[in-house]
């Protein structure tokens, strides 16, 4: 008998969410219906979550609780509280058939959580969901189009990958537009991508990064445009791309790629093959990272990456009420302070 507690970690939101949906589908198949709850460790305490798991409804036979930001569960009393519940649903000589109608799914964007919690969960119930490596992305995208009755040119696939966040959920959402606009059997070209995504797509973390590195604008205008895009993203906070975690994760992805670009440029300007191998393939993307490298040195880039990580932890420890302030300060610090912490106000250019 499997213990009804799972640990799903890692930055690949799409596959991770699919795994959660699969568990819920199994629960529905087994019990017919269930109460479905979603909590965040930033806002809801461990005792509250355990209380929901222990409660038995008069109307539904099962309960499923998804508990996000699980990496924040660190207090001794919280871990003991969680351990007590897990032990109560673990088969033993005195309790050979414990209740299995209450399922807990711990979720984290990090790749690990407190080891004392991890040890309580069966290995087979744990999985880390990594983002796709560069060499897997184009084949995965081509396969997505093939499964839906389409084909796509190599250049078009690479163009999509430059414009959409590196997680399967965002890619599926954006590519669904092609399946609506074009009849099955169509081969999607770069012109199609340009008309569907480049000209009509909603703002994303990549358009935010593009505004931050726009060499045609002054520092003041770059900050203004970036904050405008941030506001649009936050208005779409109900989607995966608008959450604070997704915004910071996307910017981290961009600045890590900038760090790679700096390293490639140490021995002179890298050739096209080297850039493409490192995920900087199109002329527009190369121009973008060339501009970014002029704005931030490799040292400043590393400081920004560290600041992005700190921002995530600050938001998660302070709660959702502080998200807007932290994100706006983050954008200001990157553009105006070049990764330095905000201690004094600095005039714009």
What does this entry look like structurally?
The chain is an alpha/beta fold and 349 residues long. The protein folds into three domains: 5-128, P-loop containing nucleotide triphosphate hydrolases (Rossmann fold); 134-198, Orthogonal Bundle (Helicase, Ruva Protein, domain 3); 205-335. It contains 15 helices and seven strands. It has helices at 13-31, 46-54, 76-88, 115-118, 134-147, 154-163, 168-181, 190-198, 205-212, 219-235, 244-264, 272-277, 283-295, 298-318, 323-335; strands spanning 5-9, 35-40, 63-68, 102-108, 126-128, 151-152, 187-188. It has a five-stranded parallel sheet, with helices on both faces. Strands 6-7 form a two-stranded parallel sheet. Strand 3 (63-68), helix 3 (76-88) and strand 4 form a beta-alpha-beta unit. The chain is globular and about 70 Å long. 34% of the residues are buried.
């Amino acid at each position: 008998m499997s213990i009804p507690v799972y640990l799903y970690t890692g930055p690949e939101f799409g596959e991770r969410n699919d795994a959660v949906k699969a568990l819920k589908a199994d629960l529905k198949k087994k019990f017919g219906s269930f109460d479905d709850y979603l909590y965040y460790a930033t806002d809801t305490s461990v005792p509250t979550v355990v209380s929901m798991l222990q409660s038995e409804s008069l109307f539904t036979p099962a309960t499923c609780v998804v508990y996000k930001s699980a990496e924040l569960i660190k207090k001794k009393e919280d871990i003991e509280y969680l351990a007590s519940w897990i032990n109560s649903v673990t088969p033993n000589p005195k309790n050979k058939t414990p209740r299995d109608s209450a399922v807990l799914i711990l979720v984290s964007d990090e790749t690990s959580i407190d080891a004392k919690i991890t040890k309580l969960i069966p290995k087979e119930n744990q999985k880390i969901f990594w983002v796709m490596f560069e060499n897997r992305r184009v084949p995965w995208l081509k396969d997505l189009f093939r499964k839906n009755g389409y084909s796509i040119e190599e250049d078009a696939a690479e163009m999509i990958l430059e414009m959409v966040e590196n997680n399967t959920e965002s890619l599926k959402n954006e590519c669904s537009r092609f399946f609506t606009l074009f009849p099955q059997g169509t081969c999607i070209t770069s012109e199609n991508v340009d008309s569907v995504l480049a000209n009509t797509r909603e703002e994303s973390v990549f358009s935010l990064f593009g505004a931050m590195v726009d060499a045609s604008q002054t520092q003041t205008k770059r900050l203004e445009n970036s904050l405008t895009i941030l506001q649009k993203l936050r208005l779409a906070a109900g989607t995966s791309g608008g959450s604070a975690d997704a915004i910071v994760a996307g910017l981290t992805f961009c600045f890590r790629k900038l760090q790679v670009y700096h390293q490639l440029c140490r021995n002179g300007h890298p050739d096209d093959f080297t850039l493409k191998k490192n995920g900087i393939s199109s002329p527009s993307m190369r121009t973008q990272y060339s501009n970014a490298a002029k704005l931030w040195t490799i040292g400043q880039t590393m400081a920004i990456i560290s600041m992005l990580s700190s921002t995530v932890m600050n938001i998660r420890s302070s709660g959702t009420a502080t998200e807007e302030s932290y994100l706006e300060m983050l954008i200001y610090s990157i553009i105006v302070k070049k990764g330095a912490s905000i201690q004094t106000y600095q005039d714009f250019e």
